Amino acid sequence: MNEPLLLMGVVILICILLNRFLEKIPIPSLLIFIALGMFFGENGVLRIPFDNYEAVNIICSICLIFIMFYGGFGTNLHAARPVLAPSILMSTLGVVGTAGAVALFAHFALKLSWLECFLIGAVISSTDAASVFNILRSQKLALKYHTDSLLEVESGSNDPMSYMLTTVAIALLSGQSISVPLLLAQQIIIGILCGAAMGWLAVKLLHQNLLSSQQSHTIFLLAIMVLAYAIPSQLNGNGYLSVYLCGILIGNSNLPQKKYFVHFFDVLTHVAQVLIFFLLGLLVTPVNLPSVIVPALILMLFLTLVARPLVSVVLLAPFRPKLRQIVLVSWSGLRGAASIVFAIGAVLSGVETTYNLYNLVFCMVLLSISIQGTLLPLVAKKLAMIDLTADVGRTFTDYQQDSDIHFIKLHVNPHHIWCGKTLSQLQFPTDLLVVMIIRQHEIIIPTGDTLLESNDLLVLAARSFEDRAHLCLREIVVEGGKQYVNRPLSEIPQAHVDRVILIKRGIDTIIPTGSTVVKAGDILVVTQSAKN
What we know:
By secondary structure, this protein is α+β, with helices and mostly antiparallel strands. It is about 60% helix and about 10% strand. The strands form two sheets. It has a four-stranded antiparallel sheet with strand order 1-4-2-3, with no helix packed on it. The chain has a four-stranded antiparallel sheet with strand order 5-8-6-7, with no helix packed on it.
């Protein structure tokens, strides 16, 4: 295990160190992770031989479960409601139309059999949620006419349809006798029923307060996510459809402390995305790519310039969108990890193809992310589709859960300057409100005439400070053995405590001056400048 763990640790460390740099370059960061995998791979600098398709298929399939669940969890149905119908059409009929168009073109352009062409079209037919989300969020692309919501819902929900088409294509190529309508119906019905049932059950149980801690709630949701995929898959249903629908139901429910779920799954999904693209880059053998680069380029050009625009026009035209919106939706059809993972499944099934399907799809995805993904912000700008007054975060449910209002408590002791005064006499700033007063176990909703008494506990609301690019706040707990204990701030070198802006001492909050003495047990709130 030492070598895999060493490799994993190095990759994660590199990803963390590159994070700030990647935010500043126009190239999609996921493309960097593919390149990193190729750098470590068999034809890369480190020449690590790796061709374990089975292991990559298992790991990447599990990672896709995380990505699809969080894609559903983060979908804001309220924000997406104006474009819900076109989004669903694009994620269902759009996938079928794209697969059919690519299959038809591949048959005549590459002279391949119909079933092989159908397999290629099915595998590459879905847009990639990870790539689309990554670009929209990292580039802060809020798009006009709810286009960002449309792309989010489409890319997050179309993988199940692509997976079903791929399953059908593999079965037909393997010579199995199947009823295609029956298989599709089985996949869809079982997937929807299981996803809805697991989502409903999770929300009900979370509201019952049966779990002891927030950590238990998070682990519970993790188990629900896994079961939402495993149960329908065991029943020959579509596990990806189930887990996506389960995520939607849970994410759009009013859950306590949802922001903790968001933070957990956001980190988990990001790691899953990095792991998928790194492993796919590690698995590929670059010296074998030239044999498929020409057909991959031909298919990708057709898919990008003909198939996707044609499907977008046909399906979106009844909703009378702006022409520039259709053009942007067409360009935003990025292919990604799901297509390559489905291609791995096809390779492991043993079906014979003219071209190595994994290498072919890998090249198509690489071309899509590098060209479409890189140019997407520029295309959106040229089409005047960027909404400078909006925030792309509003298309995600976690945006609403992370409120910018924080509550703080303040104890009014007998000697406090506020004691004996009314709230109106204190003249608070408009952004600072006293929302509640606790007085001898009595809760008081205050007005301007409320008189503050000794031992009142005030609950104040104010806008929270957001860490800036080069400035953040942190807390330091003063331990008894520190050399600056029992010394005034003016005598403490700045290197030890940075800039102290607040001291928490028991239930008291102190605004310090140079003469304020630091005591053991104090919590110092300090500013810290982040280095570039």
